[in-house]
Amino acid sequence: MLLLAACGGRDGQLSDWERENQDRLARDAVDKETVNRFPALPQPKDLMEFGVDGASSFRFYVDRASLSVAEGGVVRYTLVARSAGGVENISYEGARCPTGEHRIYAVASGGAWRASPGGWKPLAQRWDAVLHREYFCPQSVPIRNVAEGVRALQDGGHPFSRGFSADPYRSR
Q1: Burial class for 150, CB neighbours closer than 10 Å (0-12, 13-18, 19+)
Q2: Which of 8, 27, 50, 136 could form a disulfide with 75, with the two C-beta atoms 3.0–4.6 Å apart?
């Protein structure tokens, strides 16, 4: 009986330790997330370009059809980086908004996805930081839904990334 009391009680109540560590436990659950299904490879009609200053000769696109918002403030999307010579790098990625982290779930090779075993990492690439800060996680808050992300891409950035306090997307 003492063991049950130490584990949080019989009515589903949390122990003191669980209450004090809820945020860390939720983060750990998101750290262990796996994606078992990847989106379809991007179609040209679904690619939305976004600007990245100082990113060499590459142009960057998000596949609007792959955009999703998951639990834990994670925004997932397919990124296409195209060189001036037309070579494309395609990856399925995630941005964890509250912590400013990034992860690659899979890369496309030979017309198919290949899972990438890496975990969450701090934002390191300029284009990842731009997507995080200006489009999908303005002020470290995730977009609410796909439509909001598409609208931010269409408008060249989310209004919150420009410091606006009112959300013009709510009235549309």
Answers
A1: middle
A2: 136
Alpha-carbon gap, residue 128 to 77, rounded angstroms: 11
Specify the residue for token string 């990438």: 116
Distance of CA 38 to the CA centre of its chain: 14
Average pLDDT over residues 93-104: 96
Query: Would you say 60 and 42 are in contact if contact means Cβ atoms under 8 Å apart?
Result: no
Element spanning 151, H or E: helix 146-154
Q: Are 105 and 38 in contact (CB under 8 A)?
A: yes
CA distance 129 to 102: 9
Q: Model confidence over 11-50: pLDDT tens digits?
A: 456 666 656 655 544 544 444 566 778 999 999 999 999 9
User: What tokens were used for 169?
Assistant: 């997307």
In this prediction, residue 118 carries a pLDDT of 85
In one letter, which amino acid is 74? V
**DSSP-assigned states of every residue in 20-50:** HTHHHHHHHHHHT-----PPPPP-GGGEEEE
Angle at 131 between CA 148 and CA 86, to 5 degrees: 110
Q: pLDDT by residue (tens digit) across 117-126? A: 889 999 989 9
CA distance 103 to 73: 13
